């Protein structure tokens, strides 16, 4: 399956509030694509629509040319980190992953590999609902990596990580893209994204205001943060 996430003309209302207003962009292979915009711009809603967790009023969201909900063993195509708090009470981190792996026809060996990749091996047998925020975040990343998918979609992956975790996450995202995967990352941390993202999709009020190569934006505005502030001026629902 080709590593490409494509959203086209997505529209979504929640009552009177417009969450998506023609959201259109592509996250392609071999790149970290940064998905940035003010609070309420529609990033999480877009990711939920891609996963089939929210139904759009109009438009399409495709992963490798297919709707996510039609995929067989979906974790082997697209790994996603959306809500690291979503854990079954009482399960250890390892059991949580084993349960997910089983649902995808994957074995225990892959569970141990992703526990090592995310540094969770020492706490793998502890109850996951007692994990710190950073440990939950790592567990969510482990789950996203479980199926060795060609596409990844991570909502705020730096949340809760400590400084060593930031360094680790930057390296991980870079290496996933270098392996040819399409990696879509939403974050408010422009300085982290500037170093790792090849492409940036800036959104505001439910639509794309700019999609460009990171180097083009930094050449034009001086830094990704300066580009972001200029391009999203007045677009935050809270501004
Ligand atoms: N389940 C829901 N019910 C009602 N409104 C919702 C719901 N989910 C999202 N919205 C609204 O849709 C808009 C887009 O929200 P969304 O969470 O997608 O933004 P975001 O870009 O991810 O923001 P943040 O950076 O704060 O995470 C907001 O106005 C939000 O209040």
From TrEMBL:
| ABC transporter domain: residues covered | 5-230
InterPro entries listed in its UniProt record: AAA+_ATPase, ABC_transporter-like_ATP-bd, ABC_transporter-like_CS, P-loop_NTPase
Database matches in PROSITE patterns: ABC_TRANSPORTER_1, ABC_TRANSPORTER_2
Query: What GO MF annotations does this protein's record show?
Result: ATP binding
| Keywords of the record | ATP-binding, Nucleotide-binding, Transport
Q: Where on the tree of life does the source sit, at the highest rank?
A: Bacteria
One Pfam family name from the record? ABC_tran
- Which family does the record assign? Belongs to the ABC transporter superfamily.
Q: What is this protein called?
A: ATP-binding cassette domain-containing protein
Organism per entry: Paractinoplanes rhizophilus
Q: What is the lineage of its organism?
A: Bacteria, Bacillati, Actinomycetota, Actinomycetes, Micromonosporales
């Amino acid at each position: 399956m080709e590593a490409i996430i494509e959203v086209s003309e997505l529209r979504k209302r929640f009552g009177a509030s417009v969450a998506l207003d023609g959201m259109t962009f592509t996250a392609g292979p071999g790149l970290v694509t940064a998905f940035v915009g003010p609070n309420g711009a529609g990033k999480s809603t877009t990711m939920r629509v891609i996963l089939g967790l929210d139904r759009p009023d109009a438009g399409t969201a495709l992963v490798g040319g297919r709707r996510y909900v039609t995929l067989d063993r979906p974790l082997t195509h697209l790994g996603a980190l959306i809500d690291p708090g979503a854990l079954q009470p009482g399960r250890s981190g390892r059991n949580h992953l084993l349960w997910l792996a089983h649902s995808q026809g994957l074995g225990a060996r892959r569970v141990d590999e992703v526990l090592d990749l995310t540094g969770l091996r020492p706490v793998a047998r502890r109850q996951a609902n007692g994990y710190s925020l950073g440990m939950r975040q790592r567990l969510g990343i482990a789950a996203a990596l479980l199926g060795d998918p060609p596409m990844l979609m991570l909502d705020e992956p730096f949340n809760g990580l400590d400084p060593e975790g930031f360094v680790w996450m930057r390296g991980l995202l870079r290496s996933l893209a270098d392996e040819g995967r399409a990696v879509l990352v939403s974050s408010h941390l422009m300085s982290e994204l500037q170093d790792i993202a090849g492409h940036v999709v800036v959104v505001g009020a439910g639509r794309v205001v700019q999609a460009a190569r990171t180097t083009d934006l930094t050449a034009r505005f001086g830094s990704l943060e300066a580009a972001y502030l200029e391009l999203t001026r007045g677009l935050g629902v809270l501004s």
